[in-house]
Each structure stands twice: as C-alpha cells, then as structure tokens.
C-alpha cells in the first residue's frame, strides 16, 4: 500500500468506524458466534500474493465484527467498561504513525517528555500528593499496559527493596499480603515471582475492607513463624464487589512493620477526579502511605485500552530493581542523569507511545469534562439501584459501590423458591443469568459468601437513562420464565 492508497483506505476506515458507532445501539451486545467460527472462515495459511485492501477491509466487517462483543455498546454492563473515545482513537492513530519503542529518552524525546508531563497532569487531576509528581525528581508517574503489570512491577520493586535491606533472608521466607477481595493480579505476581502470599479474610461487618486489627494479627503470626512480611496490596474498589480497604489504617500498620504498600484502584481510581469521592476512596491514606498506586485510564477513564497509570513515591526503588544497562542502551543523557529512561520503570524494554492518547483526552474533555463523565456514570448507577430496590424480587447483595451493583434474584416464598436454601437460590440465579444473556443483557457473576450474585457496572460514554431502564425491563421480564424453568427442572430431577 502506498501513501495515496493509505489515504483512501484511511478515509474509508474512519467512515466505517463512524458508521459502526452509529450502529451500536441496534446491535446485540453479545456476539452470537460458536467457538471455532473464524478458523472455518479463514484459509489455513496467509496468501502467497498480497491481496487488495478493499477485500481485507470488507473481511473486517464481514468476519471480525460478528465475533466482537461490543464493549462500546451503550448497554454494555458486564465486567468493567473499557473506554474508547474518538480522542483516544486518534491518539493511537498518530502514535502508530511515529511508531517507535520509546524505551530511552533518546529513542524519541517527545514520548518520554509527554508521558512525564501528562502523568503529572493526571496526578493533579486525581488529587495525588506532590510526592508523586515527576517534577519532584524523587517520585513520579509512568504508563504501564495494565493494572496487572503495574502490580507485578510494584511487587518486583518491593521484593528488591526488602532483599537489599535484609540480604540474609531467603526468598522463600518473604510473604506478600492480599485479601479475599484483591484482584487475582496479587496471586499471579506471587506465582510468577515464586513468592509466598497470604490471603487475609475480610468480613461483611467491615464492608469487605481490610482493617488494621486483622492485618496486624496476621503479621504477628507470620513473624512468630519466622516469615518475612514485605508487602501489602490494598484495593480501592475491588473487582468483585467494589470493596474499599481502609488504606489509612492498614497503611499505618504497613509503615510500622516496614512493608511496601501498593494500592490497586484499577477501576475505581478515576473517581478521585471528583473531590466529593476522595474521602470515600481513601485519598489521604494513599497520599500518606502508598509506595505505589495504580488506576486504569482504560476502564472508566476515557482512554482506549491500554493505559494503566502507575505512580511511585520513590522512583529509585523501581530503577534499583529494574535498571540493567548494557553498552548498547547507554546514552549520554542518562549518564548525566538529566532524563527519565522509562525502560527502567517497567518490565519490558520497548513501550508504546501511550501518553499521546491520554494527552488528547485530557485536553479535549478538559478536567471538568472528565469529572462530568464520572459523575454521569454515578448518577445513572443511583437510578439503577433505585429501580432494583423498588422491586421485592431482588436482593442487593453488597452495598452498591460507585457504579457497581451486586444483586441476585430472591423471589418471595410463594413463588416456590425457599429463600433460605442457598443452593436452590444459586441454581435459580445461574438460570436467570443464562436467560439474561439470551436476552442480550450481558452481566457477569461473582461469589459473595457462597451466594451466586450478578454484577451490573456502568461507565460507557454512550450509556443513557433509557439503557438503564431497558436493562431493568429485561431483568423484570425474565423473572417469571426463570422461576417456571427452575420449577420444571426441579420436577424432572
Ligand atoms: C480490572 C481490575 C484489574 C485488572 O486490570 P488489568 O488492567 O486488566 O490488569 C485489577 N484490579 C482491579 C481492582 C480491577 O478492577
């Protein structure tokens, strides 16, 4: 493809993407294809001779789109939202045009410098302490791929920090602390790094947030057993139910025991843009105690996947753990200490120019536009909660958190379902979820104290009140048929 052909194909691509956006509301959220559908549709090997691009572009429409679950759909309420904004797309497009691996400042000075600036903009947007600003020269912000990678990177740095100050402690004695609410990234990091981890229980009385007392007790037990606690991963807005750890409390304990505190706010962290949620979301604890902090722009934060923002209070703790500089990566600027080389702040070497799309988004929306987007999602979520609460057929399982509602179907006993029979209610809710999916209401599930529960999360830019209303209508409509199906199944089994 030459440049003029690219111009033509590019215009066509933007046209088709716009048509796709216009069509979203008329599409199903869930893809209807069967496993293996694409292998059947595609040849077993790449073509010997290059093909015409029109045909390739048509195949995106005809073969790929049917296999897409439309996360950008206004009625997408599963998992967590994944942002896609025109500004973000354009950022990615321009970034692709100057594609470069950006690992050192010299690779493309703008890539490093823009990232350092927009991460400071973002730190200010979210009310983070000046200690986390790149201009501090001590702390700083970096864009990682995902919250999982931010978490893993933090664990690598925390491990190195501990082993530096305790060189005689064998690696297998180190313990990483997570809770039953922590995202699986904690266990995965421990698995990858060959570390022990301990999963702390959190209780309904504490709203599933970790408190100082139980944390301290676990630390004392483990120390008495000869183990070496070195890190806690706390969460603000857990994936399952949106639980929030008491960061100030557990942060103080972490400080007393000299543990690294990483705070994972992958989904919920963007609400810190709105001052009215900063107390609830533990900003003070984060600012006082966190060694590292992460939130994802790419979930509810208007920037296309991937853009996970990570801040570190002491960048040297990252670079001490991750700086390997063979001759071929040495530069004059780095030797002189005048620049950031972001390769030393992350696990891989090369990196995408992610800051461009963050820059586009923050400028085009403005800080107020960003906050408006967050507040709109929360207002819609309140409306949804009111609908669910208005029906005696539903139970809200855990207190609604930000824009996440966790509920289950709990019909009155005269429906034939014994409310106290957890297994029966679970079976009913599994059937209910399947029926919702068949009706194209895609909601994911979670387990709360053995209760099969259903999650609905709001956060797409396109979601309006009518979509919330429609989701609730489907929920109500499917109750009767679900109970009928459940009864029939009971009779035949
Ligand atoms: C979504 C989520 C993650 C994982 O995010 P990735 O960026 O996909 O790794 C981690 N923690 C929490 C609390 C999340 O909500």
UniProtKB/TrEMBL annotation:
Keywords: Decarboxylase, Lyase, Pyridoxal phosphate. One of its GO terms (cellular component) is cytoplasm. It holds the Pfam family Pyridoxal_deC. One of its GO terms (molecular function) is carboxy-lyase activity. One of its GO terms (biological process) is amino acid metabolic process. Its cofactor is pyridoxal 5'-phosphate. The modification N6-(pyridoxal phosphate)lysine is found at residue 299. The keyword Lyase applies. Belongs to the group II decarboxylase family. This is Aromatic-L-amino-acid decarboxylase. It comes from Sphaerobolus stellatus (strain SS14).
